[in-house]
Design brief:
Elements (H helix, E strand, L loop, with lengths): L12 E6 L4 H10 L4 E6 L8 H14 L6 E5 L3 H9 L2 E5 L19 H13 L2 E2 L9 E2 L9 E2 L1 H4 L8 E2 L18 E8 L8 H5 L2 H10 L4 E7 L12 E5 L3 H10 E6 L8 H8 L3 E5 L4 H5 L4 E3 L4 H12 L3 H18 L2 H13 L8 E2 L2
Parallel strand pairs: 1-2, 1-3, 3-4, 4-5, 8-15, 9-10, 9-12, 10-11, 12-13, 13-14
Antiparallel strand pairs: 6-7
Amino acid sequence: MAAPPASRKRAPRLLYCFPRRSTFIERDLQALRPYYDLHTFELVRGPAWNLPLRLLAQLTWLVRNRAWRHDTVCHFSGYHALLPSLLSRRCFIILAGSDCASIPDIGYGDHARRLMGWASRTAAIHATHLLPVHRSLIEREQGYAEMVPRRQGIKAFAPGCNTPWTELPYGFDATFWTPGDEERRDEQLFLCVAGPAEPGNRVHALKGVDLLLDVARRVPEARFAVVGLADPHAYPDHPPNISFTGRLGADALRERYRAAGQYVQWSLSEGMPNALCEAMLCGCIPLVSDITSMPAIVEDSGLVLAHRDADAAAALCRVAMGLPPAERQRRRKAARARITENYGQERRLQGLLAVLGGDAGTTGGQRAH
């Protein structure tokens, strides 16, 4: 891997656009700063009616930075990726989930909204290179939930999109997300991170909180915990064996992972869920839905729910609780190994640098190593 250009007079300029700051975007920015003169633009600020003004501000920013002379990375496709895809010397779009999905019943996904879908498709078509965090974001068929249209992925909504692509998974810090004292782990506890869910909103169904509530009623001997809610009191009539917690900092969240026997991610759609990978690094046995990247992430360390059915999900919980101690320990070690061996931070950085430094127009349909 190339050394950081600290000794050079001037590092190459790289523009980086995103809708809102998040933990996984911040990780990329920190990793790239030693190698580039990094200039960032966050599109979503203020109320929704402010979007045209923010796009005008982005246009000014791109012109001021002479985008036609430099490369731009866009995290997600969408409004913020449209102008960079048309004006930059080269434009790389990290496809990360909602930009490759449509679930009209809950209003989720760029392509469930006409104008946003158009922006996402157009940006992806005109980009130099696409960087999906998992190859299923290019095209896939799902059979997990009836409410989700069968065909998903960017090519389902932009069939004329022939932009080269390279699979580039997220990377995680295995030195921070670590198991704790196994004697303190509650083998009856199933943890789910689902912020900011509340009854009736799109996150409630998207992250499977509605299914988790049904399962809690069917498995009274288990305990369930949902973490990350904006309002922990939003679920007043929940079963007694499920609890709700607000947002937690990284240290507190790590302790919750370490205390849980299992981690549950019964989502309707995902890109590459960060919380799942963090929980696996902390030794949780993963229970996931059969969608996008998740079965490939967990492999034989976890249990996969093939169809969105409360009785089947309850049965999986009982299987998890009934695992013999030796098998339970094998799965915990396998879960951590899956992430450390395949989804490290250094591996992602090497992949980003290789794509940005190479001939992006000539490769596609592969995984960055």
